[in-house]
Amino acid sequence: MQDLSKISVVLPSLDPDEKLNAVIDGLLEYGFSNIILVNDGSKQENLHYFTDAAAAHPEIHLLHHEVNRWKGAALKTAFRWFLDNCPEGAGVVTVTGVRPQPDVIGNVACDCRTGEMYASMRPAHPGLFYGTGDVFASALAGLLVRGAPLSDALETATALTDESICRSLWRDTPRHFGVDFEGALPAYIRRVEKIFEA
């Protein structure tokens, strides 16, 4: 099994319920041993989910926002804590589904060696789309393993995901079948070739 001790998981949350415990238990069971849990201004009645989890698991580093500052600020808080406290940690932290505004969605990544942050945003599409996380993660990981710069890998993986959603909407594909990533692959391949031509 892969050693996950130098990989940190960022878990921002607002007003969680008991599902938070299930997520944490799953991460610990899988082998992650450094979880950065951010309370992004939750209501008083939900705070016990954070404090109970942190008290039960020394692997959790609990950070708080007094008021809700949105997911992007929660991620920045977690990234800053990571940079200040985990000098031996893995090199890249990526978070998907970031909504800086209600009509915009995208992905954020931090190069933990340099502290540089990158974002790739697109207009949000209405509804939920199955499989977008898998499409994004596969594209991003493949590019990073091949040595692509983080900024290029993030933009290219985001473009593939967005184009997969657009094709699904255009074709009116039933959403439970997942997004139409196959039709978006030719444009993805051209982008990948361009990255490695330079």
Blueprint of the fold:
Layout: E1 9-13, H1 19-30, E2 35-40, H2 47-56, E3 60-65, H3 70-85, E4 92-101, E5 104-111, E6 116-123, H4 132-145, H5 150-171, H6 185-197
Helix pairs in contact: 4-5, 5-6
Q: Which features would summarize this protein structure in a list?
A:
alpha/beta; 6 helices; 198 residues
Describe the structure.
The structure is a single chain. The protein is of the alpha/beta class and 198 residues long. It is built from 6 helices and 6 strands. Helix content is 44%, strand content 22%. The strands form 2 sheets. The protein has a 3-stranded parallel β-sheet, sandwiched between helices. A 3-stranded antiparallel β-sheet has the order 4-5-6, sandwiched between helices. The longest helix is centred in the last third of the chain and has 22 residues. The model has no long low-confidence stretch (mean pLDDT 82).
Structural class assignment: alpha/beta
- Helices and strands, in order, run as EHEHEHEEEHHH
Contiguous runs where pLDDT drops below 50 for at least 5 residues: none
**Number of H- or I-type helical stretches:** 6
User: How big is the Rg?
Assistant: 18 Å
Question: What is the percent of helical residues?
Answer: 40-55%
Physical arrangement of strands within the biggest beta sheet: 1-2-3
Q: Based on CA inertia axes, which overall geometry fits?
A: globular
What is the first-to-last residue Cα distance? 36 Å
